[in-house]
Amino acid sequence: MESKSHIKVCVGLSGGVDSSVAALLLKRQGYDVFAMFMQNWHDADATLHGDCEWEEDRFIAEMVARKIGIPFYFVDLSREYRQRVVDYMFDEYARGRTPNPDVLCNREIKFDAFLKIAEKYGADYVATGHYCRKEPLLDASGNPALSPEGGPVFRLLEGADPNKDQSYFLCQLTPDQLSKALFPIGGMTKPQVRALAKEADLPSADKKDSQGICFVGKVDLPTFLKQKLRSAEGDVVEVYDAYYAENAQYRFLAETLRSLALPGTEPCLIAPYAPEVKYLTSDGEPLGESPYDPVRLAALTDEQWLRLSEPVPYDIRFETETYRSGKKHVRKTRFKENPSGKIIGTHEGAQFYTIGQRKGLNIGGHKESLFVIATDIDRNIIYVGEGHGHKGLSRSCLRVAPDEIRWLRKDLEMVPGEIRRYRVRIRYRQPLQGATLARRDNGLFILFDRAQRGITPGQFAVWYDGDELIGSGTI
């Protein structure tokens, strides 16, 4: 076996079992390994008190490093984390968008700020406990393919464990960041990782997986946001099905999608409800043919694509009327009945809610669950719909702005006018969905084979070719 002792690897040791086993494997493979623990959040910070106690995590991480026999270092990145992740989260929520802090943490902290410090310690690579795989791209002769800059091209693949794939969280990495990353447990399943940790008697073998916001812990999100975002009471408006019959945008979407469909094909305009997700990877899920005519898709103008990607707007106005009540005929005021919707309650701030959310509304009297279908930050209104099949929960097309498109595989970057088929997911733990991607001058448009639930501005859409992550973009 070729010696790897001349290759220095810094493991981001969190105190969890995944990063611990990653360090153990690298040590056994002969690399020159050292561990570095990041403190990215202060429990005593006035902004939030989370459940994640970094002192205990650091203690366990240091014991793991001692057990494996590798140097251990500590680095405080809390300032960078606050500026580049937490402040960004507050700003996005204030705008009515829903960011993913785990994606940001990997892009801005683990593979940027942390990587730069690791390189100062002499590291050639940074390793983490992510469940994903990295492989070199090979040319037709079986040799490593080279980028225009002369370096090797790497592929980011889903993890081998179908229920633990974490490639989605790495969707915003650059090719340069990926080239300096190692994922030692990507080819393992979680039970195998646990078993190896126990066999090696690692102090983290039985430690529970972390939950919640990356490096902050499991917290109540509205409580988190209320530390900086002001509460303000507003109306909760239930939208009835009749609203869509009169709405010009909804009619445009339905008519356009039907006109684009292949002969004899009825487009799926309401997202099917999937109560559980058992397998995340693409194994056994062929992409299949698009239900839409590629010639008609190519003929759409930039303006048509843009309108196809826009959500239904909500502007339901309620008029008041006076009436007399009781034996004394006291004059009172009430809202007139409106066939489009009804004010059914109040909330503490539209910025605290996200599309697709059903918890935290605290409104009863409905046979099925209520879901947030839209928020109006300027007017402080949240719109809700009853049931999984409500029209407002589903959208078929989304747009990624030109400056938000990221290609991990630069050699596969699409040019305006090009149309391709990929699998796409719009959130972690969502099975990959068949979709058609169209690159235009005004953005990248993703048209799903079937409508999707809860397409949310600020989240990340990620596209795959088979089990390889190709690119991503902010919705």
Report on the structure:
- With 475 residues, the protein is α+β, with helices and mostly antiparallel strands.
- It has a domain at 8-217: 3-Layer(aba) Sandwich (Rossmann fold).
- Helix content is 24%, strand content 25%.
- It is built from eleven helices and 20 strands.
- It has helices at residues 17-28, 54-68, 78-94, 101-120, 175-179, 190-199, 221-225, 242-246, 248-260, 294-299, 302-309; strands at residues 8-12, 32-39, 72-76, 125-127, 132-136, 154-158, 181-182, 234-239, 320-325, 330-335, 341-347, 370-376, 381-386, 394-400, 405-407, 419-425, 433-440, 443-453, 460-465, 468-474.
- Strands 5, 6, 14, 15, 16, 17, 18, 19 and 20 form a nine-stranded antiparallel β-sheet that branches. The protein has a five-stranded parallel β-sheet with strand order 3-2-1-4-7, with helices on both faces.
- A hairpin with a 4-residue loop joins β12 and β13 (381-386).
- α1 runs parallel beside α2 (54-68), α1 (17-28) packs across α6 (190-199) and α3 runs antiparallel to α4.
- The chain is globular and about 90 Å long.
- It starts with 7 loop residues before the first strand and ends with a strand.
- The model is unreliable at 44-51 (pLDDT under 50).
